[in-house]
Amino acid sequence: MRATRLFTALTRHTLEQTTRTCFAVDRNRFKFNMSNVASLIDGKIKSKKVMVFSKTYCPFCTKAKKVFDQLLKDGTLSTEDYEVMEIENDPNCEAMQSELEKLTGGRSVPRVFINQKFIGGGDEVVSAHKSGKLVKML
Ligand SMILES: N[C@@H](CCC(=O)N[C@@H](CS)C(=O)NCC(=O)O)C(=O)O
């Protein structure tokens, strides 16, 4: 009887320790990933005049990229000032979209930044281009 009680107490103790350790590891891993993703996104936004977070199959991304391709062609934008990051196959895709949501209020793609300012998605890029506002931002 005493042995059984001792065994139960020991088992409970081990289980509690294991659970505590696992949660601590998971929490740290989550924090580590999120801060890495946050600095990656921040670095990208800061490093380019035009930074586009995109998915290859997304039609709104395609129309935004078409506009920038045109600006590259006519010399309004230079290749070193422009980057598109296709995120759908990145293992951190979800975390990146969550970080973008934190920064911009939305997680859809494309998320387009010009001079570190979020200007919108595909619809906004097209309409800013049509009105002439886009070129003025560059
Ligand atoms: N009005 C937005 C629509 C963007 C949109 O709906 N994008 C879709 C992909 S085509 C999206 O991000 N869906 C959620 C997701 O992929 O997580 C724009 O013009 O950019």
From TrEMBL:
GO cellular component, one term: cytoplasm
Keyword Electron transport: yes
Domain Glutaredoxin per the UniProt entry, residue ranges: 50-119
PROSITE patterns attached to this UniProt entry: GLUTAREDOXIN_1, GLUTAREDOXIN_2
InterPro entries: GLR_AS (IPR011767), Glutaredoxin (IPR002109), Glutaredoxin_euk/vir (IPR011899), Glutaredoxin_subgr (IPR014025), Thioredoxin-like_sf (IPR036249)
One Pfam assignment: Glutaredoxin
GO function terms (MF aspect): glutathione disulfide oxidoreductase activity
Key words of the record: Disulfide bond, Electron transport, Redox-active center, Transport
PANTHER family: GLUTAREDOXIN 2, GLUTAREDOXIN-1-RELATED
Protein purpose: Has a glutathione-disulfide oxidoreductase activity in the presence of NADPH and glutathione reductase. Reduces low molecular weight disulfides and proteins.
Name of the molecule in the record: Glutaredoxin domain-containing protein
Lineage: Eukaryota, Metazoa, Spiralia, Lophotrochozoa, Mollusca
